[in-house]
Structure formats: C-alpha cells, structure tokens
Amino acid sequence: MDAAAAAPPLSPRIRATAAPPIPAARAWAARYGGAAGPLLDLTQAVPGYPPHPDLLARLAAAAGDRACAGYGPIDGEPALREALAADIARAYAAPIAADDVAITAGGNLAFTMAMTVLAGEGEAVLLPAPWYFNHRMALSMLGIAAIPLPCRAEDGFVPDPDRAAALLREHPRARAVVLVTPNNPTGATYPPAVIARFAALCRDRRAWLVLDETYRDFLPEEALPPHPLFAEAGWREGGVVQLYSFSKAYCVPGHRVGAILAGPGFRAALMKALDTMQICAPRAAQAALAWAVEALRGWRAGNRALMAERAAACRRAVAPLPGWRLDALGAYFAYLRLSEGAPDALAAAERLAVEAGLLALPGPFFGPGQERHLRLAFANAGLEAIETVPARLRAALG
C-alpha cells in the first residue's frame, strides 16, 4: 500500500494555508550560476548589520544565568514591560504604563494571539491588501476569513477609511481592522489623520483596530508621534491594539521577542492565549532587551539613519530605469512596479534569481492583484550591493 495514500488526513485549515513564500523563492537561487556576481538576497526583512556588541554580551550572560532557565511571568518580565512602556510613551507623547504591555515570543505570534482573542471561526478580519503573507496564513489556520482592504498604488498604498466602512457594512461578522504601518510589503507609512479616521470608524462599528507597528523604529524623527491614538484618554477601552517586534530595531530576530499593547479588557483575555501558546517569552532575551531599550537609543537612531540611506540608494538606483517605478518606499521595503515589457511578477522574480542572482519576492505572494510588483527588502543589503540592482534587472528582464 502507498504510504502517502494510507496516511491519516491533516487539518483542513493547514491544507488550505499557503506554503511559506521565502523558501519557495530561495529555491530558485539553486539554479543561479554566478554570472552577475554574488547572490543578492532581498527576500526577507533582516537587519543587514549585527546586534550591538554590548547587547550580545548581555544575551550571552543571561543565557548562562540559571534564573533565566525557569518559567517567567506569563505576560513578560516586568523590567522589559516597563522599559518598552517608557519608550512608547516617549515616541507617542502619551502616558503608557507597564500594565498596558504584554511580551510575546515574536511579532508573528503577537498577531496570531491577538486574532485568537478577537475573532473566531466563521468571523472575519479586514486585512490591507497587499498583505503581509504571515498575517494571511495565521488567519487561515484560525478559520478566520481575511477580507481584503484594497490599497492602491495611486494612493501610495495607504488604505481608505471610506472603503473600509463599506466593507464593514458588507461583512457584519468582521471583528477587526488590521493596519500595518510602516507597511510590509510596500513600505508605505500611513498618515496620522488616516489612522485616527480608522480608529473613529472602528469605534462607531464596534470593531477592533489592530495596529501592527513592527517598523515604527525606522520612522524619521519628524514623523513622530506616528498617530494620536495613545494620547486619547479612552484608547484602552476604545478597542485599540498595537503589535510590536524587537527583531528589527535590536537585530535579534532569532531570539523571538515581540509585544502587544492593549487595554485591561483585552489583556485579561489575552492571558489565556499567552499561557496556552507560549507560557512565557524567551527570558534571556527579555533580560538583555530590558537594558537595551534605553541604553541603545542612540545606536537605534544611527540604524534608522542607515536604513534611510539605503532607501535613498534604492530610489536612486531605480530612477534611471525606463518603465520601472517605485510605487512605495519606506522602512525596510521598496515596492517596485515592473516595466511594461517585463513578464508578470512570478516569472520575473524567478528569472531574476536564476539569471541575475537577485532574489526578490513577487507581488502575488502578498495577495491578489499584485502581478506587476516585486518587493525588495533592501535592509539586508549594503549601498554597494544596492547599486548593482539596475544592472541585474537589465540583465534578466531587459
């Protein structure tokens, strides 16, 4: 008997969930012969510089500390919650307390647990499209419908609250609206007034507003505060939830530390998900990060400037290419529209990988209607590498 045919069935939700896109794209690189120079991997949002050496030393010390080997508080180490609360209060010019913060084992798990708390099977969530593929995958696994909230290139990929209002009327079982700013995959940053309009809409419709602000550390100083919501006295009862990740700003994606900011009603329910899905976030990383939040503020500012340089280099590199256009750019990402003569995004991305050693993610990995776009995660590339992008595009796509 064929073993595969005899195997018991897997979860229908898992079967309906798309495969992880980045390994699929990287598989193309196995066919690259090296003619265009070293492989340039712009598929994953990874910091292209190491953690601060003092942070590495503290991570090593904490990992060897017997105290960090046991279970910790379900919602995170108090020192890290206090440090993050103070950092958010500074960035958003708002009174934030440690009691508003829960620490999670990474940003993706923060999203999954938030959705677990907010919606159930047969209910729905509005997700800006193009979307971050892991958000879509998490909703599929949970049996929650993802309703695309279309974001258009002509609007700078900023979502329209009026369009969201129409979708909420059309889908009465929608329990939340998700916003990702600065956005993954496009890099677009949503204006504070737009975010405020979404908050008002969600209050009126008794829906939750979930703000994924993983990349907020890379906003320019003049863009702070990113929105006014936390300065409003009723935000904790008004259905606002913020998601955050330490992976990018502190260069520690392998240590899996994220956070959720929310009011007491949400956090009380969240404790069930926290205890079930993680018990506690990694304790050694929490101990080191509690020190780093304040101590490395200057270092983080330097890295923000470095990312801005790479974004500018990306803009300069693409500008002379006839027919190509950056429809959005910011934080870690450039969202590049293909020239008219290029094939669709899936074919173009494969050809770039195989013929020019340039790995980028095609737009269809981020949802419907993205056949003419590529996402370039430039954070992982130095200025010299970014300067090679035009030649690689020409070599593979003309």
End-to-end distance: 51 Å
H/E order of the elements?
HHHEHHEHEHEHEHEEEHHHEEHEEEHH
Shape: globular
**DSSP helix fraction:** 40-55%
Secondary structure tally: strands: 13
How many helices does DSSP assign? 15
Assembly level: single chain
Catalytic activity: L-aspartate + 2-oxoglutarate = oxaloacetate + L-glutamate
GO biological process, one term: amino acid metabolic process
Domain Aminotransferase class I/classII large: 50-387
Protein name: aspartate transaminase
Description of the structure:
Helix 9 links the parallel strand 5 and strand 6 (208-212). The strands form three sheets. Strands 2-8-7-6-5-3-4 form a seven-stranded mixed beta sheet, sandwiched between helices. Strands 9-10-13-12 form a four-stranded antiparallel beta sheet. The protein has 15 helices and 13 strands. The model has no long low-confidence stretch (mean pLDDT 96). It has 398 residues and is an alpha/beta fold. Helix 6 (107-118) packs across helix 7. It is globular. This is aspartate transaminase. GO terms for molecular function: L-aspartate:2-oxoglutarate aminotransferase activity; pyridoxal phosphate binding. Residues 50-387 form the Aminotransferase class I/classII large domain.
